[in-house]
Amino acid sequence: MRDKLRKWREDNHRNSEQIVDVAEELINEHASKLGDDIWIIYEQVMIAALDCSRDDLAWTCLQELKKQFPGSQRVKRLGGMRLEALEKYEEAGKQYDSILQEDPTNTAARKRKISILKAQGKNTDAIRELNEYLELFVGDQEAWHELSDLYINEHDYGKAAFCLEELMMTNPHNHLYCEQYAEVKYTQGGLENLELSRKYFAQALKLNNRNMRALFGLYMSASHIAASPKVNAAVKKANVKYAAWAANQINRAYQLAGRGTKENKCSVKAVEEMLESMQITMS
Amino acid sequence: MGEVELSCLAYVKMYLHACLFPRCSVNGLLLSSSPAGGAVCVTDCVPLLHSHLPLAPITQLALTQVDVWCAQTQQRIVGYYQANACVSDCSPTPCALKIADKIAEQCNNAVLLMIDGGKMSPDYRVPPIVMYERKDSRWTLKDKHTIMLRQWEETREIAGQLLDSGDHSLLVDFDSHLDDITRDWTNQKLNAKIAELASPANAEQQLKAM
């Protein structure tokens, strides 16, 4: 059980309901056997409890942690998170401000303040604060990704692409960033962006040939380029080839998936027909 | 404009979709198996995304695939639903309006449904939904009295039951399907479970509509 909790911590899983289920039994019955692990488990459980609106459990964990680590900034931050969960945003903000007064480099507190803005729907403020944060803490991957998400929600695709470029530079083997970047480019539209999107979908596939989004993305971007009146015959021919290859791969993947299960006969057929219909509009 | 009826099946799946991803905005399509003309009967829904709703490629892909599936099963896309991650604001986002516009091109009494996250707790006795219809090329709030949910109490109970039993995790949206294509976004299994829980009279109605 404690191994499971450790794995969830390390993989950063947000399976809060599961954690809460496991935790009560663990804490009540086996506390003595957990040794020093118990403190980090209290922290993990408290955050999960906040996620599940279990303020009773969260409060218990917080008290134990406060007793053991009085004056700790890490515990103070947890206190702030509890206030956030109760939607007492002003108090939470003050809590984080006091942490930052003692230690202006505390990134956790700064990020929590930005989360408050996001929770209140103040997206433009959150974006501004996050930009300021990233000027100081340029290497924070999580922050770059959060910023790209915020920009996508504000439909500012150019800036979202910039954030994803930063992430791709520092994580060249991550197929998900490539694929997201390609999606943003596709959404921006226009021939140049479509070609870029096709290239990055292809790159994502190179890094992970089972990424279905990238495969579909490659198919769609290549098809749209081939159907565009602005491309010359050679480019058209090349893109028709890419699209055909992608369609083939998609069909194969669905045939494999459809084997033996009655359920996805619908989706297999739907994909086949869709690919056929799109081919007709292309030629 | 006209009356809109929302079936138990459609409501329950939409509701469960929103519950399955409480931290994300989710969206989906509303379908009807009734012929065009007269009142709009939403008989089913297809949950689509729970991430990056404004991005185009997957939405386009999903719309095309659902279109094809509808043609195969004699259904039509008659609307769009969305639940925003931020509970305090349930107004339609630009991407919701865009997709709803596209649907309205093919179906002239299409509806746009926003789920009001703030009203989803068990102590609210009314459906936590806000519906919009197209009037003079703008999406305007629909009169509550033209929206019908037959057997609302029962529907609410079924949704609650599935949530308590953890069966809401059976729901597959298009995003999850792309993560694992063996999962079925038409949700036949969940549909069967919902039909089972509905009263015999309702179950017959659902089966006729499917």
The dominant shape of chain B is: globular
Low-confidence stretches of chain A: none
The number of helical runs of chain A is 15
Number of strands of chain A: 0
Tally the helices of chain B: what do you get?
7
Which key features would you list for this structure?
heterodimer; A: 283 residues; mainly alpha; 15 helices; 0% strand; B: 210 residues; alpha/beta; six-stranded mixed beta sheet; 7 helices; globular
List the helices and strands and how they pair.
The complex is a heterodimer of chains A (283) and B (210).
Chain A: H1 2-10, H2 16-30, H3 37-51, H4 55-68, H5 73-85, H6 89-102, H7 107-119, H8 123-136, H9 141-153, H10 157-170, H11 175-188, H12 191-207, H13 212-227, H14 233-258, H15 265-282
Helix pairs in contact in A: 2-3, 3-4, 3-5, 4-5, 5-6, 5-7, 6-7, 7-8, 8-9, 9-10, 10-11, 11-12, 11-13, 12-13, 13-14, 13-15, 14-15
Chain B: E1 4-6, H1 8-20, E2 26-32, E3 40-42, E4 44-49, H2 56-72, E5 76-83, H3 94-106, E6 111-115, E7 129-135, E8 138-141, E9 147-148, H4 152-164, H5 174-179, H6 188-197, H7 200-209
Parallel strand pairs in B: 1-3, 1-9, 5-6
Antiparallel strand pairs in B: 2-4, 2-5, 6-7, 7-8
Helix pairs in contact in B: 1-4, 1-6
Keywords (chain A): Endoplasmic reticulum, Membrane, Repeat, TPR repeat
Subcellular location (chain A): Endoplasmic reticulum membrane
Main location (chain A): endoplasmic reticulum
What does this entry look like structurally?
The complex is a heterodimer of chains A (283) and B (210). Chain A is mainly α and 283 residues long. Chain A has 15 helices and no strands. In chain A, helix 2 (16-30) crosses helix 3 and helix 4 runs antiparallel to helix 5 (73-85). The longest helix of chain A is centred in the C-terminal third of the chain and has 26 residues, at 233-258. The model of chain A has no long low-confidence stretch (mean pLDDT 89). By secondary structure, chain B is of the alpha/beta class. Chain B is built from 7 helices and 9 strands; from the N terminus they run βαβββαβαββββαααα. In chain B, the strands form 2 sheets. Chain B has a 6-stranded mixed β-sheet, with helices on both faces. Chain B starts with a strand and ends with a helix. The model of chain B has no long low-confidence stretch (mean pLDDT 90). At the A-B interface, helix 9, helix 11, helix 13, helix 14 and helix 15 of A face helix 2 and helix 5 of B.
